């Protein structure tokens, strides 16, 4: 109905064509109902209100999760950026690898009471200590007692400019309940620190409800006397390593097992060996973590294994965590969360269950002795209530958050889950791909997610394919991309385009990805491959400027093939949404030229209607609410003068010509539906209709078409009538109107 966004249609979850390659089982496409419409029924292609904008927002979020720190906002979640002159620095929360051991197993130094009291006296603090003395952990402990969230600053940051940057973001930073903490470890420009620098920071940090801790080596001395009052020196006597190991074992194991371990002579030898070396506090904590992994419930420890693992570099903490995950349930959820990080819990859990079924090929047989007839073999049943979600998320170093996520139909509250460390998604994906021989299984699973009902799930899965392409580009091209590019299912073709977009971010792969797309683009015998190429160009593969991209899409529009025309429209939408004000006038001007070319008239009209229907803009509400939904082209026409002429002319041609006129009327009715309860939007729409008719020198035929269309908005069979839009149009265009 006009004014009501069409709900997403359920998609098949079973890809229907089996691969005739060694990697059998990789999906290609559902055979029936895969393509969206045809030239005999193009309506479905132009009834996807807001899909282009929603798709673009989900894609930007996926790229942010999977390592491409783009400038746009993530759909949900809190992002902080600090600006220094012309440079923007996005901040990340400290990794759980740093915060969790401090939270649960920190050992206070001897002067902790004095340190804590002096810390609370200022918003800025310098913690000094020798190398390996635990000054970073001490700083985190001090901050965590006063603030809720801690962000790490790049050591290259210029502290002298930090006050201005924090003051600029004071409103955003101060909005976080519980306060914000900044940790700057071993700054490169430590010599620039002066007392007046931290004095200037006091007001900015107070206004932002924030605190700053800088850690320095004990041999770095203050540059002036004013800096002394901000300095906290750790005691000269280092913390005993056994206290640290005892505390960490108590956290990582239960009290009974921890006591047994501390009584174990092998553990005593390991602690003594650590004390005899120039080991740091972090080394002691790492040793405790390794002991907890190499022990059994009776307190027995393999000393050889502990020593071997402890010699490994400390940055292998991720490997230790991932190797410590037990069973298919935890590992399946870990991989699913890496792919769908930041999406609703239900979507992640469903994907995890699907992956687990693929990884568990055999069902476990158990011997049951509870039967009166005697022992018998039975298939072990899995208890879905065995592992509470909270415990699973804690094991995976993940968290759940109540957030608002915007979909094509609007913004809704959801419970999302995400890794606490933003680097974990890409690390888990790489570990699963490179660390185990399950590549065909992962590709089959991702293929099923790509044809899922949820658009965000599809896009995040496509983004993951792009991450995998960075590791195994040729393997994915030969086993997946070339075949999927010719799929009958546009969702699978779209996934290939987006995956190549992700891979092309890597400078080493950009030229190869562009070459692959060019080969599809020029293949006249495979129009579906050409459609995939169109989507890839719209997504940015090939590093073409907008004018060159539009030119290539225009050449494809000479192919009067519905699949290609649909892809050209979606590609133009993707291109415009990357720079709406700059690209929309160029695209609409090109479309107007295509309209007059008989070879491109029908594809041009379909592409224009896709742009008019699939792109929406949410104008912010004065009360801070979700805002008002506008057609993007209509919203842009208010401020982008270069767009108005081409847009008015395109609507004039679309309304007047017989080609796709029913679809044009439906999309225009959708615009009227969005404006029905928004006076400002309705006024802008009326100005567009007046320009379309050609007032004050009207085209009577177009005027009559629009009057008849407006009359349909209030007919009895119209389930959602548009009386305000009808009345306004009739007042402007009907005989005797204003």
Architecture blueprint of SSEs:
Blueprint: H1 51-65, E1 81-84, E2 87-90, E3 92-93, H2 96-105, H3 112-119, E4 124-129, H4 135-144, E5 149-152, H5 162-168, H6 170-174, E6 180-185, H7 195-207, E7 210-217, E8 231-233, H8 241-252, H9 255-263, H10 265-276, H11 281-293, H12 303-310, H13 317-323, H14 327-339, H15 345-359, E9 365-368, E10 376-379, H16 389-395, E11 398-407, E12 410-419, H17 424-435, H18 439-450, H19 455-471, H20 473-484, H21 490-503, H22 507-521, H23 527-539, H24 546-556, H25 562-578, H26 580-595, H27 601-614, E13 616-619, E14 628-631, H28 632-637, H29 641-656, H30 661-675, H31 679-693, H32 700-712, H33 723-733
Parallel strand pairs: 4-7, 4-8, 5-6, 6-7
Antiparallel strand pairs: 1-2, 3-5, 9-10, 11-12, 13-14
């Amino acid at each position: 109905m006009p004014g009501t966004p069409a709900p997403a249609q359920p998609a098949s979850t079973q890809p229907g064509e089996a691969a005739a390659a060694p990697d059998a089982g990789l999906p290609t496409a559902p055979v029936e109902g895969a393509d969206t419409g045809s030239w005999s029924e193009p309506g479905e292609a132009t009834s996807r209100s807001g899909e282009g904008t929603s798709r673009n927002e989900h894609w930007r979020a996926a790229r942010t999760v999977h390592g491409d720190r783009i400038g746009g906002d993530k759909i949900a979640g809190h992002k902080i950026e600090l600006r220094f002159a012309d440079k923007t620095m996005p901040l990340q929360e400290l990794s759980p690898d740093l915060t969790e051991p401090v939270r649960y197993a920190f050992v206070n130094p001897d002067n902790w009471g004095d340190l804590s009291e002096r810390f609370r006296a200022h918003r800025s603090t310098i913690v000094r200590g020798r190398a390996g003395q635990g000054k970073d952990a001490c700083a985190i402990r001090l901050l965590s007692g006063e603030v809720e969230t801690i962000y790490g600053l790049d050591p290259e940051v210029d502290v002298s400019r930090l006050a201005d940057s924090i003051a600029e973001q004071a409103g955003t930073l101060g909005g976080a309940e519980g306060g914000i903490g900044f940790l700057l470890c071993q700054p490169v420009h430590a010599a620039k620190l002066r007392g007046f620098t931290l004095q200037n920071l006091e007001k900015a940090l107070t206004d932002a409800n924030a605190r700053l801790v800088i850690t320095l080596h004990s041999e770095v001395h203050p540059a002036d006397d004013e800096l002394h009052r901000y300095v906290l020196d750790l005691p000269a006597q280092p913390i005993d390593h056994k206290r640290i190991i005892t505390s960490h074992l108590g956290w990582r194991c239960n009290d009974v097992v921890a006591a047994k371990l501390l009584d174990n002579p092998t553990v005593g030898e390991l602690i003594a060996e650590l004390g005899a070396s120039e080991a740091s506090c972090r080394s002691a904590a790492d040793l405790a973590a390794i002991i907890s992994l190499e022990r059994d419930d009776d307190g027995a420890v393999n000393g050889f294994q502990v020593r071997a693992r402890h010699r490994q570099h400390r940055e292998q903490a991720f490997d230790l965590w991932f190797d410590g995950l037990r069973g298919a349930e935890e590992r399946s959820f870990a991989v699913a969360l890496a792919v769908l990080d930041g999406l609703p819990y239900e979507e992640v859990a469903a994907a995890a269950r699907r992956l687990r079924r693929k990884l568990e090929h055999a069902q476990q047989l158990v011997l049951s002795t509870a039967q009166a007839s005697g022992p018998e073999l039975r298939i072990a049943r899995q208890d879905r209530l065995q592992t509470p979600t909270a415990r699973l998320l804690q094991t995976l170093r993940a968290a759940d958050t109540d957030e608002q996520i915007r979909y094509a139909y609007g913004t809704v509250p959801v419970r999302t889950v995400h890794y606490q460390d933003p680097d974990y998604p890409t690390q888990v994906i790489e570990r699963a791909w490179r660390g185990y021989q399950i590549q065909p299984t992962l590709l089959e699973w991702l293929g099923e997610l790509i044809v899922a009902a949820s658009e965000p799930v599809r896009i995040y899965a496509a983004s993951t394919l792009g991450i995998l392409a960075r590791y195994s580009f040729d393997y994915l091209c030969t086993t997946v991309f070339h075949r999927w590019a010719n799929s009958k299912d546009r969702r699978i073709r779209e996934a290939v385009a987006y995956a190549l977009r992700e891979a092309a971010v890597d400078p080493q792969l950009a030229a190869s990805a562009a070459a692959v797309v060019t080969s599809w683009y020029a293949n006249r015998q495979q129009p579906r491959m050409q459609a995939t190429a169109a989507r890839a160009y719209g997504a940015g593969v090939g590093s073409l400027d907008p004018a060159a991209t539009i030119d290539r899409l225009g050449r494809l529009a000479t192919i009067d093939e519905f699949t290609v025309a649909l892809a050209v429209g979606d590609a133009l939408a993707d291109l415009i949404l990357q720079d709406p004000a700059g690209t929309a006038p160029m695209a609409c001007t090109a479309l107007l030229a295509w309209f007059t070319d008989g070879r491109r008239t029908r594809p041009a009209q379909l592409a224009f209607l896709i742009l008019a229907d699939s792109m929406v803009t949410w104008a912010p509400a004065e009360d801070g609410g979700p805002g008002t939904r506008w057609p993007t082209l209509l919203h842009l026409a208010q401020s982008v003068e270069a767009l108005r002429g081409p847009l008015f002319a395109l609507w004039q041609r679309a309304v007047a010509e017989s080609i796709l006129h029913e679809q044009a009327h439906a999309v225009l009715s959708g615009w009227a539906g969005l404006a029905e309860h928004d006076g400002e939007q309705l006024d802008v729409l009326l100005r567009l209709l007046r320009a379309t008719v050609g007032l004050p020198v009207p085209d009577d035929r177009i005027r009559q078409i629009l009057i008849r269309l407006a009359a349909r908005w209030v007919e009895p069979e119209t389930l959602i009538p548009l009386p305000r839009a009808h009345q306004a149009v009739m007042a402007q265009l009907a005989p005797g109107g204003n």
